[in-house]
Amino acid sequence: MYKFFLFLLCFFVSPFISNAQESDLTADELFLRARNMAFEQKDYTQAITLSKAALSKAPDYTDIRIFLGRLYTWTDQIDSARTVFENLRQMQVKDEDFFLAYASLEYWHDQPSKALALIDSGLVLHQSSQDLLLLKTKVNYSNNNFQDAEKTIGRLLQLNPKHTEGRALSKTIQEYAAKNAVGLTYNFVYFDKQFDHNWHIVGLNYRRTTPIGSVILRANYANKFAENGVQFEVEAYPRLSNMFYLYVGAGYSDNVGIFPRYRTGVSLYANLPHSFEGEVGYRQLYFNDHIWMYTASVGKYVQNFWFNFRTYLTPGEENISQSYTGTVRYYTKGANDYIGFIVGSGLSPEENRNNLLDNAPYKLKTFKVGAEYNFSINRTNLFSVSSTYYSQEFRPNEKGNQLDVIVGYTKTF
Q1: Which of 347, 228, 343 is CA-nearest to residue 285?
Q2: d(CA 166, CA 303)
Q3: What are the boundaries of the signal sequence (predicted)?
Q4: CB–CB of 325/351 below 8 Å?
Q5: CB neighbourhood size of 97 (10 A)
């Protein structure tokens, strides 16, 4: 009976003791507890209570007011959050975190114009704020203002070329920023044993950016096996949301053997949290029969670097043929300026060598290693050069060497 009475006494008295202890704490100590409640224990209600208690002791404590506004934002108490932030604005607060917190609220609740006005006011006072520049890029990108987004992310990467999230976002924005692009590529392929004649492939493409994504028209001319052929392709990258977009492609050629008669492909891409990106899809080639390949890839941005791993799996009657490729890129400036290295095994349907997939020689062993260099001049002139070495088993236990060299130029406008 005594223990039960002691338990009831502790149960009813402990809240008063706790409140009395909190009343003895300073505003800084209460602020620290509020942050711990929010970030460590995810108890936003208690964090709001502690923040209010801290403000009762220090009404002019700007950091606590900004934090309280964030807490209201995170708990969807939007009117309360706006009241807090508007009071801070009337107080002419100049803290970078105030502009970031208030603009984030408006961005998350579909008020891009108000968010941009707040960000621009913050950038007047904090011109080198990487957080404000990143948020401005996101707002413009979400509002389909791709050219403004490209300028802002370029400014951010000039300040900090190793900004991981900015680097990942710049690659996505680059696909939409230029309304038009015309490109020309030339591919020379040298064989020491497998074929008597070297290959020459020329590609001409036109890209148009639409409100839902890019559309690319391409014509390829090839001289292979001392014969000529032409292929026509169309590709599109429709944007589904800020996270997801598609790749859809198709091609046709009347010169079977030099090119597949038909090719199709679909992939779903995802821009994932923490600067990851992923893809799943298929590719299909038709020469005299269908070849179906399934692909998956995962990429990750780390400061100036981009790492990517891709596989193609081709089901057969007796086994599944496999192709693996690892790529590393080091970005020197913007999305079109990088040095890259690749290493892998197997054949890929994306390569100009895809006609080697016909008649099942793709089941033989292939090793490849290569490098690429892309750079831009005045942002609208894009140049590329790459070289890849292949050790190709073209007959069982018989290998040949192959060297691909590709140069390209693209003009955006």
Answers
A1: 347
A2: 9
A3: 1-20
A4: no
A5: 18
DSSP state of 112: H
Q: Contact at 8 Å (CB) between 68 and 54? A: no
d(CA 301, CA 54): 40
Contact between residue 279 and residue 272 where contact means Cβ atoms under 8 Å apart: no
pLDDT tens-place string over residues 43-97: 999 999 999 999 999 999 999 999 999 999 999 999 999 999 999 999 999 999 9
Of the candidates 295, 305, 245, 246, which has an alpha carbon nearest to the alpha carbon of residue 275?
Answer: 305
Give the residue-averaged pLDDT of 296-306. Answer: 96
How far apart CA 14 and CA 361 sit, in angstroms, is: 78
Tell me how far apart the alpha carbons of residues 359 and 292 are, in angstroms, rounded to a whole number: 13
Q: Which CATH number fits domain 24-176: 1.25.40.10, 1.10.155.10, 3.40.50.80, 3.30.1330.40?
A: 1.25.40.10
Beta bridge partners, 388, equal 370, 404
Closest of 340, 344, 343, 307 to residue 324, by C-alpha: 344
Q: 154 with 130: CB under 8 angstroms?
A: no
- CA torsion angle for 64, 65, 66, 72 (degrees, to 10)? 110
Structure tokens of 262?
């038909």
Residue 226, Ramachandran bin (φ over 0: left; ψ between -120 and 50: alpha; else beta): left
Residue 165, CB-side half-sphere exposure with 13 Å CA sphere:
10
299, 329 Cβ separation under 8 angstroms: no
CA distance 161 to 106: 28
Q: In 48-91, at which residue ranges do the beta strands (DSSP E only) sit?
A: none
User: How many beta carbons lie within 10 A of that of residue 20, not counting itself?
Assistant: 9
pLDDT tens digit sequence for 307-343: 999 999 988 777 788 899 999 999 998 889 999 999 9
The residues, ordered by sequence, that sit 6+ positions from 140 with a Cβ below 8 Å of its Cβ are 116, 146, 148, 149, 152
Going by C-alpha positions, the residue among 250, 214, 248, 210 that lies closest to residue 232 is 250
The model's pLDDT over 85-123, given as tens digits with 9 standing for 90+, comes to 999 999 999 999 999 999 999 999 999 999 999 999 999
Domain ranges of the chain: 24-176, 179-412
> Which DSSP letter does residue 378 get?
T
Q: What distance in Å separates the CA atoms of residue 207 and residue 264, rounded to the nearest whole number?
A: 18
The answer as to CATH 2.40.50.100 being correct for domain 179-412 is no
Distance CA 85, CA 56 (A): 17
Q: What's the CA gap between 50 and 37, in Å, rounded?
A: 9
pLDDT score recorded for residue 87: 95
